[in-house]
Design goal:
- A hairpin with a 7-residue loop joins β4 (32-39) and β5 (47-52).
- By secondary structure, the protein is mainly beta.
- It has one helix at 105-109; strands at residues 3-7, 10-13, 18-25, 32-39, 47-52, 59-61, 69-74, 79-84, 93-101, 119-120, 124-129.
- The strands form two sheets. Strands 2, 4, 5, 6, 9, 10 and 11 form a seven-stranded mixed sheet that branches. A four-stranded antiparallel sheet has the order 1-3-8-7, with no helix packed on it.
- It starts with a strand and ends with a strand.
- It contains one helix and eleven strands, in the order βββββββββαββ.
Length: 130
């Protein structure tokens, strides 16, 4: 059974930090990359934030992040982390851990030609107060 279980969300003041965790089960490290999407209030679509190929360590970051977030993977623990620094009120939203084909992870992270992740977690809320 595939499971993506997120944790670490919460309420933080602007400029603060959070670390999100995603425990992955039922998916091979070789075949599935892990990413983070978010649903921001007022926006219609979920947007890709960051992703990592657990096989190669290659990472992807959405251009709007400008270096504020860092993704990492501990394959021994089957856990992927997203470190959120210099948080802004506009980062408020629900953050979802996602998984998909590691060979095409850039495509589904950036929603190229309609590509989407295959699996989604339940999400963890992040609220940044001003």
């Amino acid at each position: 059974e595939v499971q993506l279980v997120e944790s670490g969300g919460g309420l933080v003041q602007a400029g603060g930090s959070l670390r999100l965790s995603c425990v992955v089960s039922g998916l091979s490290v070789e075949d599935y990359a892990i990413g983070w999407f978010r649903q921001v209030p007022g926006k219609k679509d979920r947007e890709g934030v960051s992703g990592i190929s657990r096989r190669s360590g290659e990472t992807y970051y959405a251009p709007f992040l400008k270096g504020r977030f860092t993704i990492s993977s501990d394959n021994a623990k089957n856990t992927v982390y997203l470190q959120l620094n210099s948080l802004k009120p506009e980062d408020t939203g629900v953050y979802y851990c996602v998984a998909g084909d590691t060979r095409r992870y850039i495509l589904w992270m950036a929603a190229v030609d309609g590509h989407e992740p295959t699996y989604w977690g339940q999400g963890t809320p992040v609220t940044v107060s001003s």
